[in-house]
Amino acid sequence: MSYRPDKVKRREYVSKDIIFKNGKLRVTQLFGERPEFYEKYGLKGHEGIDLGFTSDDWTLFSPVRGYVWKDFDVVRNGYGNHVAIVCPEERIVVFFCHMEKNFVSEDDQITIGDKIGIMGNTGNSAGAHLHLMIFQWEGNPANRLNADNGYKGMVDPIPYIQKWLEYSNVKDDIIFDKRYIDQEQIKKYKGKL
Ligand SMILES: [Zn+2]
Q1: Which of these, 80, 78, 170, lies nearest to 117 by C-alpha position?
Q2: Where are the domains of the chain?
Q3: How high is the mean pLDDT of the chain?
Q4: Ligand 1 mean position to 131 CA, how many Å?
Q5: What is the pLDDT of residues 70-128, one digit of tens each?
Q6: Cα separations (Å) of 82 from 29, 39, 70, 118, 138?
Q7: Running DSSP on this structure, what letter comes out for residue 184?
Q8: How far away, in angstroms, is 29 Cα from ligand 1 center?
Q9: Fold designation for 5-187
Q10: Mean pLDDT on 166-177
Q11: pLDDT 10s digits, 174-191
Q12: Distance between Cα 128 and ligand 1 center (Å)
């Protein structure tokens, strides 16, 4: 099964706070980039996207409805302080990584626009940013799809983010930060934005 936006029912409640306040999203690294760096982690490339701040407000907001599946308060691995949110209606898990702090605990019910935490620089991170990643599942979140895709089942979050922004009537496009992202890489998203 793949993600089919047309099959996801229009969400009843929307917030303009999608990941960052008012959906202000600046991408500093795309999915799949830097294969030479991620090889040592057993990955074909970057297994999520990185988002940088656009204002002094580093609060992070949930883009989905669901519940908190995992809450890693202890900075014990590469992802630092991170949480995983299950979204049953989209059959995905969304990870917020490298946070300074988080406001949620396992099994907390989450709705769109809920405050998840504060962006930070914990774990294997060189500067404050949000590493956001997504995997798809079938049946239950322990049954991860595409686990052998070279990214441990993670998929490109940008098509999801575009849909979330659209649902929430956020008019601003995602910013692809040209200082960090190769122009050739950005081209594959042109026409969808
Ligand atoms: Zn990252």
Answers
A1: 80
A2: 5-187
A3: 89
A4: 4
A5: 988 766 678 999 999 999 999 999 999 999 999 999 999 999 999 999 999 999 898 99
A6: 18, 22, 8, 10, 23
A7: H
A8: 7
A9: Glucose Permease (Domain IIA) (2.70.70)
A10: 85
A11: 888 888 888 887 887 764
A12: 11
| Torsion from C-alpha of 130, 90, 172, 117, nearest 10 degrees | -30
Q: Give me the residues paired with residue 144 across strands.
A: 137
Say how many Å lie between the CA of residue 191 and the centre of ligand 1.
24
> What's the CA-to-centroid distance between 12 and ligand 1, angstroms?
31
Report the sign of the C-alpha dihedral through residues 167, 160, 73, 144, in that order. Answer: positive
Question: Tokens at residue 40, please?
Answer: 């040592």
What is the per-residue pLDDT across 56-77, written as a single tens digit (0 to 9) for each? 999 999 999 999 999 887 666 7
Residues listed for the chain: 193
CB atoms within 10 A of CB 143: 11
